[in-house]
Amino acid sequence: MPTILGQNQYGKAENRVVRITRDGDTHHIKDLNVSVALSGDMDEVHYSGSNANVLPTDTTKNTVFAFAKEHGIDSAEQFGMHLARHFVTSQEPIKRARIRIEEYAWERIETTDGNSRFIGADEVKHSFVRKGQEVRTAQITFDGDRWEVLAGLKDLTVLNSTHSEFWGYVKDKYTTLKEAHDRILATDVSAWWRYNWTSDEDRAPNWERSYAQARKHILQAFAETYSLSLQQTLYQMGSRVINSRSEIDEIRFSLPNKHHFLVDLEPFGLKNDNEVYFAADRPYGLIEATVLRDGVEARIPVDMTNL
Ligand SMILES: O=c1[nH]c(=O)c2[nH]c(=O)[nH]c2[nH]1
């Protein structure tokens, strides 16, 4: 049976580009997932394998990152228009470009304590939390006599665009990681904490307020810690919760290190001054630990945060 080629398109999907714009020590973030689909005179590559009309998908990826540097990202629409116009007008065989973009919204982490040297008025200028993300969790156990209440959250996505370093680590023959003195630190916070209330004879905590306060302290500690490792940030977040909430004795975190790699723009004659990053989704570092009030026994199961 003879066959003919039908509709076809190609390009690089899901380019995760993060653009940081620095206005003094106030940083702005644009976080996009950009998919490029090109079509045009592409019969030959399908029929005979001739690549004469094919702009590599790898090039379309590079263009996304280079344009983030060269043109900035004012809006997803404008950025998409720049890209689409570029592909259609610069390559004769390309007749149509479809750019799909998802934009992830971030808001600044607020502080009310006024106790950090990194804080402006009431916001940390380089610390962000993803909008509308987290899921609140709870686990209640009762044996007819005693209560155990665990509470927590997951998918609370946070990012510091500076005040994070990672260096001085062990190096063996397989180590290739470059030491970082100014990197992005981003994670999806999963946490479980345990209330020390166990008996109906005692007054139970105000669950709503405790949750809101624990969340606030986690965010503020993340924003206000000058981090030398995600492990250190984790410990700061945990001890901030334990020290400020007497009703909580124990907190366990599972923190994926969401790596952001600086994109090498040198091949395109562009300098990347800590502005354009590739947000990798996997593999990721996974940093997990419990922080306890001194003298209490650890009860939160080690694998709780993976449930
Ligand atoms: O904060 C970090 N902790 C690590 O243990 C680690 N390991 C790594 O490769 N990068 C990082 N970052």
Which features would summarize this protein structure in a list?
seven-stranded antiparallel β-sheet; alpha+beta; Uricase; oxidoreductase; purine metabolism; binds uric acid; single chain; five-stranded antiparallel β-sheet; EC 1.7.3.3
Structural write-up:
With 307 residues, the chain is of the alpha+beta class. It has helices spanning 43-47, 57-70, 76-90, 207-224, 230-244, and strands spanning 15-23, 26-40, 94-103, 106-110, 123-130, 135-142, 147-160, 185-195, 248-257, 260-262, 276-279, 285-292. A hairpin with a 4-residue loop joins β6 and β7 (147-160). The longest helix has 18 residues, at 207-224. The protein starts with 14 loop residues before the first strand and ends in a 15-residue tail after the last strand. The model has no long low-confidence stretch (mean pLDDT 94). The structure holds uric acid (URC). Uric acid is lined by residues 166, 177, 229-231, 257, 285.
SSE diagram, text form:
Blueprint: E1 15-23, E2 26-40, H1 43-47, H2 57-70, H3 76-90, E3 94-103, E4 106-110, E5 123-130, E6 135-142, E7 147-160, E8 185-195, H4 207-224, H5 230-244, E9 248-257, E10 260-262, E11 276-279, E12 285-292
Antiparallel strand pairs: 1-2, 1-11, 2-3, 4-5, 5-7, 6-7, 7-8, 8-9, 9-12, 10-11
Helix pairs in contact: 2-3, 4-5
The chain binds uric acid.
